[in-house]
Amino acid sequence: MTQFNDTELTAAVIRSFDETPNPRVKFLLQELVKSLHDYVRKTDLTFEEWDYAIDFLTRTGHKCTDIRQEFILLSDVLGVSMLVDAVNHRDRDGATETTVLGPFYVGEHRETPHGTDISASLPGERMFVKSRVTDLKGKPLANVPVDVWHADDDGYYDSQKPSYATEGPSSRARFITDADGRFHFRTILPCSYPIPTDGPVGQMITQTNRHPMRPAHVHFLVNAKGYEPLITHVFIEGDKYIDSDVVFGVKDELIAKVEKRTDAVMPDGKPSDGPWHLMTYEFHVKPGGGLAPAPLGTKVTEDA
């Protein structure tokens, strides 16, 4: 009967994938085995710890729904999402910096006219966002779909609320850039907020004495034909969590100074009802290809 010690076992498992038809899948699986086995050896992992890890992953899976992805959240707080982002976007060549998609992108955003208040039914300080999409040389790009989404004044995304299924989206929309590459909209000033702490990922953060907070930001997904999809945030300068984002998503270039204004008229010529905030940001996209993220819950399969 064949017997293995702790190092021979690793070699045997790696060899078991030698006939994998897809070379990339073979490489990924064999490297995964090496890393997992090295972790077990380095930590002298106990049966109790391994059982806890299996239970944690099981509970993480049970927390996932069509509008909540606990595994993405786990990847985010472990810094894996930002690491994957970093290795895939090493050379920006002047393009806007990328950051994590986050677990609350649901896809299929509704196309909305410029100037729409996407948070009209929500309380909060009013904000006007004006933006532009260009190529790396500053040429404006027209007819580009830009998805935007952010949390409300209480720190919740629309998809976290029971009303989402019946009332539909809020603080979430798709705009199409005009001939000069511009788009603008009204909303509320986002605030810093905690990641969900009612699941296993939030419990892990709490139990390890890490704070669960994300600095205030607006998500943008710019999907210009012939260019790499751009997934990013624009963060609000001065937020107290700007240097300690729980998902490690902040980059200096993505921090915007948001001005408080008292003008009676907003930039689109329409009156304001009181003080408001102005966010401006210009996105630069890089030639290339690739697909924008699929809506949450879409199943992607690939034969090994």
From TrEMBL:
Provenance organism: Bradyrhizobium macuxiense
Instruction: Please give the name of this protein.
Output: Hydroxyquinol 1,2-dioxygenase
Q: Name one Pfam family in it.
A: Dioxygenase_C
Instruction: Alphabetically list the UniProt keywords.
Output: Dioxygenase, Iron, Metal-binding, Oxidoreductase
Q: In this protein, which residues make up the domain named Catechol dioxygenase N-terminal?
A: 22-96
Keyword match RNA-binding: no
Per the UniProt entry, what are the Gene Ontology biological process annotations, in alphabetical order? Answer: catechol-containing compound metabolic process
Q: Which family does it belong to?
A: Belongs to the intradiol ring-cleavage dioxygenase family.
Q: Is Isomerase a UniProt keyword of this protein? A: no
GO molecular function annotations of the record: catechol 1,2-dioxygenase activity; ferric iron binding
**Domain Intradiol ring-cleavage dioxygenases as annotated: residue spans:** 113-275
Q: Which cofactor does it need?
A: Fe(3+)
Stored SUPFAM superfamilies: Aromatic compound dioxygenase
- What PANTHER family does the record tag this protein with? DIOXYGENASE, PUTATIVE (AFU_ORTHOLOGUE AFUA_2G02910)-RELATED, INTRADIOL RING-CLEAVAGE DIOXYGENASES DOMAIN-CONTAINING PROTEIN-RELATED
